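Summary for the lay section of the report: proteins are chains of building blocks that fold into shapes. Here we show the chain for Ferrous iron transport protein B and then a coded description of the shape we predicted for it.
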Amino acid sequence: MASVALAGNPNTGKTSLFNELTGSYEYVGNWAGVTVEKKVGILKNKQARLIDLPGIYSLHPLSRDEGVATRFLLSEEFTSIINIVDASQLDRNLYLTVQLLEYGKPMLIGLNMMDVAKHRGLAIDHEKLASLLQIPVIPIIARTGTGCDKILETLGSGRMAATPTLRLDYGPVLEESIARLAERLQGENLPPKRWLALQYFEGNPLVAEMLETMTDGEWLQRLRIETEQTLARIAGAKSLDTYIRDTRRNYIAGLLEQSVTRKKDVDQTLS
Ligand code: GDP
Ligand code: K
Ligand code: MG
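The coded shape description reads as follows.
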């Protein structure tokens, strides 16, 4: 049976959506080694199982509990991802989206809290966003179930198979280091090498742990330090982490500029 992972920031309606999409539970327990609840359900149309990942803002874990999603991407087999996104807080939510798109699995976005976004005067052109990201973006209100059938339909349609791996341009220095690192990584069933390299340079400790077992740890650290120093010198970057973050943030700002308009407050217009 196909497996779909449900990923998103905390408090974006993940549990509400999980309940809308699944008819029955297959498993409820804990993720190995942590006190985080693990829920697996069967989609209502019986097409696949749905795996609920813990809510996170970034794949770069700050705690053991937050590492569950990264460990999942590093070692589990799955078919596709539903990324639930809070439409009223797109800017913050799209950061995880970018990290997931860099991973490159078939993905769709469930654009949740559309009622809240509307109430706040945000007009989101979801079709524009879909065409920019080249994945389905489905507006939903998970609390009432609005739009959730469309998610099931899209999962079954095969449209997500065309999901491209997002390839942001991190500039010549980092791109060269990414290429050098990716070249060193050999193995069966590896996650995408470019994604591993980026997560390593970003400082993801779980990825560092994995890569240290695959290649020369000293070489790895030297590459990281040299890359960071060069970026500091030529781009004034405070750290590799912030450099990567800023590149993603710029990309997100561009996405929002093209797909979101804030309607002028009626009261303001009249006064
Ligand atoms: P989780 O923390 O990501 O699992 O999110 P929950 O499903 O627990 O939802 C968090 C809160 O947001 C709950 O009070 C939900 O009822 C509410 N919620 C979920 N989806 C929507 C939605 O589309 N619109 C509104 N207004 N509230 C929602
Ligand atoms: K919650
Ligand atoms: Mg929840």
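Put simply, here is one thing we learned. The pocket of guanosine-5'-diphosphate (ligand 1) is lined by residues 10-16, 55, 112-113, 115-116, 141-143 (CB under 6 Å).
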